[in-house]
Amino acid sequence: MATSETEAHQSGYLKAVEALFDEALAPTPKERAEARRKRQELESSFDDPDAYRSVRAALDKADDGFWMQRSTAQFYLRMSPTTFKKALGRGPHPFEAPNGGAMKKDVLGWFEGAVTAKHADKVGISPVARMGRDSKSGRPYLVRDDGVILADGEITSLSREDVLQALENGGDLRVMTLSKAMASPWAATDEWLPWADGNIRMLQARVRNAADVLDQAREEIAKAKEKKLEAVWAAAPSRRPPPF
Where is region (Disordered) located (predicted)? Predict the structure, then answer.
């Protein structure tokens, strides 16, 4: 049975937590107790986006020799099972067969090579300065020495440092609404399509919200009319005949 992206990331997350907070590696009883507490806390938050971000941040800080299972590498690189499998099939990879892992430095080297090769025809080859990470989705991206930013999927947020490097190297930064961006020419249709789908979903949500606001406004108008009618009747002179 195929594993969903959610299931794959949960598995990789839990294996990462287990490796990062391994009690056996803590040198003192106090540190072992703290590692156990932190591991249990994170294991109970396996579907929390904030926990995912904190564990990926911990993996970012881990030593180059940190050992990653395949599922942890997939979680760390924010890849779906399909994308990860396709990437493995394109060429040599550092993971031991059939289900072994690899050191963090080799995982990053493989990822860098795969992403660089994907965009080589369009932007050429240039040394990579560092890896950044989308603060919303957790997807990593590469920042080259020349300021070019490369990714293997959608990126919605860049760090200030990465934006400044791109600008300093002749890059162009334009701020526009999503609808205007959708109407502008894109270099690649396959990159434009996911954003177009997102724009459609956003507009559909806006229509639903507008319909809800309209319904609420109609209800308030009806209530206001009822109150006005009550006030008119209350202020009207009595229709009873005068006493004799």
Answer: 25-47
